[in-house]
Amino acid sequence: xxxxxxxxxxxxxxxxxxxxxxxxxxxxxxxxxxxxxxxxxxxxxxxxxxxxxxxxxxxxxxxxxxxxxxxxxxxxxxxxxxxxxxxxxxxxxxxxxxxxxxxxxxxxxxxxxxxxxxxxxxxxxxxxxxxxxxxxxxxxxxxxxxxxxxxxxxxxxxxxxxxxxxxxxxxxxxxxxxxxxxxxxxxxxxxxxxxxxxxxxxxxxxxxxxxxxxxxxxxxxxxxxxxxxxxxxxxxxxxxxxxxxxxxxxxxxxxxxxxxxxxxxxxxxxxxxxxxxxxxxxxxxxxxxxxxxxxxxxxxxxxxxxxxxxxxxxxxxxxxxxxxxxxxxxxxxxxxxxxxxxxxxxxxxxxxxxxxxxxxxxxxxxxxxxxxxxxxxxxxxxxxxxxxxxxxxx
Length: 394
What we know:
Layout: H1 5-13, H2 17-22, H3 27-38, H4 45-51, H5 57-69, H6 73-90, H7 92-118, H8 128-145, H9 148-161, H10 168-172, H11 176-186, E1 194-195, E2 200-201, H12 202-211, E3 214-217, E4 220-225, E5 232-236, H13 238-265, H14 267-271, H15 283-296, E6 299-306, E7 310-317, H16 323-331, H17 334-341, E8 345-351, E9 357-364, H18 365-373, H19 379-385, E10 387-390
Parallel strand pairs: 7-8
Antiparallel strand pairs: 1-2, 3-4, 4-5, 6-7, 8-9, 9-10
Helix pairs in contact: 6-7, 6-9, 6-13, 7-8, 7-9, 8-12, 8-13, 9-11
């Protein structure tokens, strides 16, 4: 499907997984790498083991990426996580309640983030005027459009940590500047909300971008922040403006990663409280988890198409494993395909490492519906009802 193409290209060209598999890693050792990466950040290692493949692969890839791009970001993530842990110790009920109530807002931020990515343009060839305009728009979108929900969550978490009363709806309605100032004053990581080298707040940069309080003077960008006697004017070049964008994104990456790690570390408790009817995530979010999990198991998605009636998935084997075992493994992914698509008829075509079609497995959604309803029906019931079609030496 066209809307997933950018995800598939990113996994193939930017993810470390294909290179790891090419150099002797196996699906099992990749899982071990994910667990070892996140172990210092998780309290509940059984949850880390449980969710490593199904949920954490895209976050692992992103963690590796931001650790390279942003020096010292791991320490900042740990500092934010400490606040979550302290809040949980102070008031377990309130902390898990905040995480569950904020889910719909985070999903909406995630939806906006995908729009942000899809509309992103290469700025290298732009004239200074267009570069400044698109960069300022990025700053505004990053700080308010895709990050406000994590600012709100962190304000609430730090209130709980300090033994204060909280109100999710009231905090959501707070102005951005008030949220940022609250975090500067009342968190142990206030410095990440102040952008060097001008040392103005994220919310001030948002105002510059949103209200267009900048102008072009020769090849420099003159920015104005504040009013009256507090008004500040400064000049930067295009490279410096790009650095400011990266810093704004760095703060968002810190908060998002800490939120996700704490969320998965405490997922059983949080998921009990989530209002399922309020979830409205873009398909890309679920597909990223799905395709990343499959690639970590050595399967590259070549093609995927689905509607309410039919779902078809083509998988290319990135490993040199036994095709019979790998083919059976691919058939076990029919359940995940159903959870992703909710289609009535499901089919997976497994292609060997040499490009030859080896196995086609198919099943009807009613089998999975029965398994969900009846606890006595499990793997054996699935095996009895899945259809196999072998080709090329199967």
